[in-house]
Amino acid sequence: KTAMAEATALREKEKAAFDALLGDSKANLVALDKAIAALEGGMSGSFLQTTAASTLRRLVAGNKDLDDDDRQTLLSFLSSDSEYAPASGEIVGILKTIKDEMFASQKDAIATEEAAVKSFEELTAAKKKEVAALSKAIEAKLERSGALGLEIATLKNDLGDTSDTLEDDKKFLADLEKNCATKKATHEEEVKTRGEELVALADTIKVLNDDDALDLFKKTLPSPATSFVQVQTSSATQRAKALSLLSSTASSLRAAEGRHHLDIVMLALSGKKVGFEKVVKLIDGLVSTLKQEQADEEAKKEYCNKEFDSTDDQKKALTNKIADLETLIAEAQESVASVSEEIAALKTGIKALDKSVAEATEQRKAENADFKDLMANDAAAKELILFAKNRLNKFYNPKLYKAPAKQELSEEDQIFVNNGGTPPPTEAPGGIAGTGIEVPAFVQLSASASGSKAAPPPPPETAEAYKAKGEESNGVIAMMDLLVKDLTKEMTTAEAEEKASQASYEKTMADAAEKRALDSKSLNNKEASKANLKAELEGFEGEHASAGKSLEVLEALIMELKNECDWLLKYFDVRKQARAEEVDSLEKAKSVLAGADYSFLQRSSSSRKYLRSSA
After folding, report:
1. Can you tell me the distance from the alpha carbon of 218 to that of 528, in angstroms, rounded to the nearest whole number?
2. Residues 284 and 589: beta-carbon distance below 8 Å
3. Helix or strand or coil: residue 383?
4. With a threshold of 0.70, does the pTM exceed it?
């Protein structure tokens, strides 16, 4: 927009200068028309008293291109009070020549102004298109910026929610670890207490079942018929009580919860030939097996929890990695697309630059050819006019006549002439009308100039009396000088324009070469950057595929782990409680059986007392 404003200001300035120039030119042409009409009508005296004469006087005085002699002649005429003698057309010829020059200058100025207006309009249209394109790009960028801002705000909100959730999860984890630690300590205390209890019972049974203890009890008890556990009872009754105790416990258990262990003991007790020692031994083996199973399941539970934690952590890490890789892949794809567009734009620009360089070169060649044609034609025309002027001077002004240079003889011809010989005949000059001035080879002659001239009109019947026209010849010679001056000026202007055009062309070519080198370098850098981005994108895609496969394998592993551990974790507490009850029942049955042979109590028919009523 700044460039458009500057161009508009410059155009307005040029337009004002053109309007002023055009107004002066029109006023001067009007003055010239009045002067020529007055002179041709023989009213020079009245014309000199008009404002047009003053305008013409200022024009002649300020015209730097006018020859000094012509200027002096015109100023003398314009300042004279005498009537103009139309016998000589010199003044009118000079004024017409000035008019033609001013008209041509005015025409050139109008053409230049029209070209400037057209160039300004094209520049303005191009700048408006550029402003529209840039405005559209700015709107797109603003829209994208707004979308990104909204997305960032959304992500920040999600981050805040996630942070809050993370804090809650951390608190829950801390509470869970604290509760688990408390439960673990309680469990360990219970296991320790139960172990100490079992050790105490085992030691007690060992002491009471010792042979020496049996002999001592037999000696110290009131009656040798008394029993350690009970009085006035039989082994069948003790067997029945143990079966009843085991049966009541087995009725509350399922087969999957270890009921088969009790069934084995009950089956052994049901057989009358199996002694208590074997049943007790069987109970001890079953209790040991149950404890080992419990220890194995606890180890299995710890293994499952550890594996679940490990696989969950791995799954979260892989999921986060895949999400990060997807973000990187999207960014890399966007970068590759952006670089591809820039590469296409650079290639298009380089192609357009090469085309403009070729067009400029062809235009420069055409302009140079036109310049050479113009210079050759003007030089030939100038030489021809000077030849014609010299020929007129030979007749009208012999003092100003310049004889052609004498023919220089060759060394051989000079020796021949010096010895009294006749010089060789001079060849007739060729060229235009025998002047020796050659027409440039590239100038096309019209058909009338090549020999197909129409027949000349018949000569007059009688010739008029000869009268030398010296005054008219001076006007013609002056017109020839003016033509030569115009040709010289045109050649000088053409040389300056050619030099300026060549310098501008060379600068344009240098700028184009520099820009092409920069664009080519930028294109190479962009292509290298695109290759690196593609390699990086392929790496991200490879890592994404590998992470996806790893996640699939991990999910399969998690599924296998769930199939293996879910049932155990679900029924762990139930199975532990059932196994504890089973062990308790076995221990009670063992205590009952142990009391069948060894008793501290007196016989009673109404009640029975045990060493331990519950385990």
Report:
1. 106
2. no
3. helix
4. no
